[in-house]
Task: structure prediction
Amino acid sequence: MFTDMTSIRVLVLAILFVSSSPAVTAAERIWDNELRRYLKDDDFKYEEFMSEEEAIKLMLPKSRRIRKETIRLSSDKKELIEQRIGWKFPEQEFELYIGQTGDKIDGYAVLHNTIGKYKHMTYMVGIDATGSCTDVELLVFRDAKGSEVGRKRFNSQYDGKTVTDPIRINKDIINISGATMSVRSMSAGVKRALVLVDEFYLKPQGIGSDTVASRRNEKGFFDSLFGTN
Result:
């Protein structure tokens, strides 16, 4: 009796394993419309362009002190950030480095992971003390295509961008043929990094985008009032 019950249990487990295996395998397979086939493991690249430490040295070269902080988003703050950038994201925390010399903030370096076409890529966004993008460096690329976003002739487009810029393909960013998803992903990440620094560091100092916009409006008002335009 015991032997029969054991055999039945083994048979049931074997049936469950066999019936569930194809579903798991199918779920892991990724269909590529351009290649018109499922992607294989060797289709994906793993390219390391530079380390986190090397990127920090590039973005904060003159800072005497560099400290690491974590931005944690409350539900309300996350919703505000999403409204400002125009898209929703799952992350609740972001890491960044702050460069400082004496009492002066030199800039920020925000570590980002966003999905390209299929997998995450890791990059760092440099931002100066006034909220302008100074550099974007691709650290690790894991996707099947799109690593061209790591080339300086492409990512130099982000230099000087601020939260007031669209940072979108066909507006102020030139696309790369065959790497559209990576370009969109990196552009969205740069915009988010700029907004995060604006909300958490510049606005509390009174030098955020709201203060800059207010000053511009005041200047425009007085210029029109006194006929200086």
The first strand starts at residue 31 and ends at 32. Confidence is low (pLDDT under 50) at residues 5-27, 217-222. The first helix runs from residue 2 to 28.
